[in-house]
Amino acid sequence: MNDTSTRAPATRRGKGLLPLALGMVLGALAMLVGLAEAGRLKPREPQTVVALGQLLDAEHRRVDLMLERGDMAGAIEALEALREQPWPDHEAGGDVGMQLRHDVYGRLLRLRLDHPEVLPVEPQALLRIAEEGLGESYRELDINPFTARLAALRGEVLEQLDRDDDALAAYVEALDMNSALLDRELAEEGAK
Amino acid sequence: MGAGALLGLSACTAKAPLTAPAGGVDESAAGGDRDDASLRAADLSSLELELDRSWEELRTLEDSREPASVEAGAAGPGDVVDRCERIRGLADRICVLSDRVCALADEHPGEERYTSACGRGRDTCTQATEAADRCAAG
Fold it and tell me: In angstroms, rounded to a whole number, what is the distance separating the alpha carbons of residues A179 and A146?
């Protein structure tokens, strides 16, 4: 997405920074309007989602760098810190706002499950991460890989807690989501 | 790529309307005297294209989020993931989940709920793998 090759210098256009800044804001909002028109998103507070996306973009990059250096603790701490920031609810942030949250929580939970020796927590705390991340309205979202991943991770945590019936339900739910994503992918392939 | 890209924000900022050709028309070539209304219309057209690309990436972003991929320096988050790779990735996830369901079923012999879920998961895994193989075979 950082395709600098198509980025033309503003000076070449002879336009100042103010129009550029206005364009950036317009662009972000227009994108969100486009999503809403596509039936995927109707955020009540699009500006909140824009700001959240910019914050998470920077934080994910920081986490990427930490992981490249093998700094698991730093990565986990950075993602844990994101839990503390105010997340828009489904109404305010729309589907995209929720998916952004599911992405962060899924990444955190995956790291915690894969590296239980780093900043260890009890399985019950892992379940809190999963359920806090998913929230109550996750089933209302358009099916997406982030929610599917977090639902599956919740199953792993429930299994650790010996709650097999609940784990089974979580796995089946995640299976159904991934199956629907595959169907969507194949339908698009068939349409081409 | 991060959340901004997921949102299309990187695209919208890096390719801000006033710094990139809008609607296939280079603004500088067009004179650059357009009023705000026409500018916005062109920008929106351009952004719709960006939106489609962003949404496409959203569906594949999970792969780039896998810690193993990051640690191994595999395909970078911003890399375009081939459709067949996406299908393969989904098939793999489906089969991993199916394995987990069946492992639970093994611990609950004779419980219909588990047995049924395992059978359904196996079927889904088989179908997904076949779809991935068909895609790879072209």
Answer: 14
